[in-house]
Design a protein that fits this description.
The chain has 400 residues and is α/β, with parallel strands linked by helices. It has helices at residues 60-72, 107-115, 121-137, 157-160, 166-172, 181-195, 247-257, 261-270, 273-278, 284-292, 296-320, 330-335, 337-344, 356-359, 384-399, and strands spanning 2-8, 13-19, 24-32, 40-44, 50-54, 87-92, 103-104, 143-147, 203-209, 213-219, 222-226, 325-329, 366-367, 376-379. The longest helix has 25 residues, at 296-320. The relative contact order is 0.11.
């Protein structure tokens, strides 16, 4: 089965084409600046190099149409006809409490995703535009939605509810949902395969640490808690997101800065976190470089960032009455050895003992802890797209 995986944002479309007979990637790339001037698609060529292809894309329909065109191009693609695409899988950020597992797209599913736009206005609207663009261009091709928060749907009520009047949950669906679920799902299973253990016997803390970052407590294969909340703003300190903050500090700052609720949300999402503390960048590579050069605010940003990761490791070990495996993944987790080292230092009481040589690596599946470490610390590069592709194959095959 040939499966196209799409991740449509507000002004972008990431795509990956799979031959699911061996899960090989046939073509991949990403369209950017949709609806803006100087739109382009960055295509990954067969030799691994990348090339930018300029193309005017006023909307997602034109963006998807051009992606299809590239898939048929002898240089950039791998298809002779669009009829070769058996199904399309989509990443959907917010499924609320309507969708607890992946599903085939129907009118009811589209309406459900649209009804949740208030909870994720930028993301869900972009996803819908992508679904509808494919439907307009390839109306007979089945589509599947894979929800970012679905893996976290096993959380118990005492973990996902906020301590506000219960009717706010009933009326407005205000609760912790969590995100990056497809990544947490992939790495929690993959690390068990890699170590040769059964996920149903393991207490795992998954650390998806990128520009957006979240952690999850996965106990015997099911999530019991996660750091992100109603939106991706909660939890860890991130590239430009504040993470956890006293709500009274938010209202206080709104008064002092004269900001509306939406402006304050933008401020906490885009001008805070590592960027806000360091005053330099949201990119951890730049902040680490500045720290090495003696920049005190970069040093502070790193200390805050790593401390919060360590604090959540301790909290989740407490929630699960122990931990067997700590998994690192995503852009920072896979590439910044200093973050991994500092976040795991001081956890000896839990049975964590890191190996400096093993930790000196990037983007590979590798055990990072010492042989005599009671807790296995492992790096597993994430692969959200293959999870989406696998779910797509399973659901489409079942429907036939």
């Amino acid at each position: 089965m040939i499966v196209l995986v799409l991740n449509c944002g507000s002004s972008s479309i990431k795509y990956k084409l799979y031959d699911m007979s061996d899960e090989s990637v046939l073509a991949q790339g990403g369209a950017e600046r949709i609806g803006l001037d100087n739109a382009f698609v960055k295509v990954t060529l067969k030799d691994g190099s990348k090339e930018k292809v300029m193309h005017d894309m006023p909307d997602h329909k034109e963006g998807v149409k051009f992606v299809f065109q590239l898939l048929l191009d002898p240089k950039y693609g791998a298809l002779k006809s669009l009829d070769q695409i058996d199904a399309v899988g989509h990443r959907i950020v917010q499924g609320g409490d309507l969708f607890e597992k992946s599903c085939i797209v129907t009118k009811e599913v589209e309406d459900g995703i649209e009804s949740l736009c208030d909870l994720a206005p930028v993301h869900n609207a972009g996803h819908l535009r992508g679904i509808r663009a494919v439907d307009a261009l390839m109306p007979d091709t089945p589509q599947v939605t894979v929800f970012d928060n679905a893996f976290h749907s096993t959380m118990p009520a005492h973990a996902y509810l906020y301590a506000v009047p219960y009717e706010l949950y009933e009326k407005y669906h205000v609760r912790r949902y969590g995100f990056h679920g497809t990544s947490h799902r992939y790495v929690s299973q993959r690390v068990c395969d890699f170590l040769g253990v059964d996920i149903k016997t393991q207490k795992i803390i998954t650390c998806h640490i990128g520009n957006g970052a979240s952690m999850a407590a996965v106990m015997y294969g099911k999530v019991i808690d996660t750091t992100m909340g109603l939106t991706p703003l909660a939890g860890l300190m991130m590239g430009s997101r504040s993470g956890d903050i006293d709500p009274s500090a938010v209202t206080y700052l709104m008064e002092k800065l004269g900001k509306t609720p939406q402006e304050m949300a933008e401020y906490l999402n885009k001008e805070s976190g590592v960027l806000g503390i360091s005053g330099l960048s949201s990119d951890m590579r730049e902040v680490e470089s500045a720290d090495k050069e003696g920049n005190e605010r970069a040093k502070l940003a790193l200390a805050m960032y790593n401390y919060r990761i360590k604090k959540y490791i301790g909290a989740y070990a407490a929630a699960m009455n122990g931990v067997d495996i700590i998994v690192w993944t995503a852009g920072v987790g896979e590439n910044q050895e200093g973050v991994r080292w500092d976040s795991c230092t001081g956890l000896e009481y839990l049975g964590v003992k890191m190996d400096k040589e093993r930790n000196h690596c990037r983007g590979v599946e590798q055990v990072l802890s010492a042989d005599d470490s009671k807790v296995k610390v492992v790096m597993i590069p994430t692969d959200e797209e293959i999870v989406i592709a696998r779910d797509t194959v399973e659901l489409v095959s079942q429907s036939k």
